[in-house]
Amino acid sequence: MRAFIFAESGGTGFYDDGRLLIRFENYTFINRAGLSKDLVNSVSNSEEYYRYDVNGQWIPIHDTPDMRYDALKWAIGLDEEAAYESVSMGFSQIMGHNYKELGYSSAKEMFEEFSRGYSAQLDGFTTFLVNYRNGVILKALQEDNYIAAIEAYNGDKNYSGSLEKFEKAAGIR
Q1: Which residues neighbour 5 within 8 Å (Cβ) at sequence distance 6 or greater?
Q2: What is the pLDDT of residues 29-78, one digit of tens each?
Q3: How far, in Å, CA of 19 to CA of 117, rounded?
């Protein structure tokens, strides 16, 4: 669990100002909100932009915590449910659209609970590991199949290098 947390967030669930650590995923938002790609743009996973209208200036999303929250506020103005579902949050960076697996009634409720503190984030993270896709992550971890656990958690084999690095740093490997 420490390895996932360190790979996802470096071990913190909050910004220095006390706000919940988030990452707004614009490609998820446009799919969930049914928007055209005229309002969002992704150069890469770390270079994502949005704009208020199709002729407007592109605004970066991920440079600062304020920019991430500004993007979330913009998205909430268009489709609140899709906006909260399109945010990964806390030290485990679980996407809001997974709220049901964590036992919440909405992604906004998950966001609000995760904002309360680390205890809620830890409860949500452990519940996610047990419930996500009928326990596929937990089963993979129990079998020491880290690649399968990584793929189920993040969908990207390239993530395994980060996870292995953090496992070693955390004294797991």
Answers
A1: 11, 91, 92, 125
A2: 989 998 877 777 766 566 788 888 888 888 888 889 999 999 999 999 99
A3: 10
Alpha-carbon span 17 to 15, nearest angstrom: 5
User: Which positions of the chain have pLDDT values less than 70?
Assistant: 42-46, 155-173
Assigned token pair, 54: 């199709």
From 99, 116, 129, select the one nearest 20 (Cα to Cα): 116
| Strand ranges inside the chain, DSSP E | 22-24, 40-42, 48-50, 59-60, 87-89, 94-95
Q: How far apart are CA 71 and CA 89, in angstroms?
A: 14
How are the residues of the chain apportioned to helix, strand and coil, as percentages rounded to the nearest 5?
55, 10, 35
Encoded amino acid at 75, one letter: A
Beta carbons of 125 and 91 less than 8 angstroms apart:
yes
Structure tokens at 80: 């609140």
Instruction: Report d(CA 94, CA 117) in Å as an integer.
Output: 15
* pTM of the predicted protein model: 0.87
Strands 94-95, 48-50: pairing kind: unpaired
Residue given tokens 């998820």 in the structure block: 28
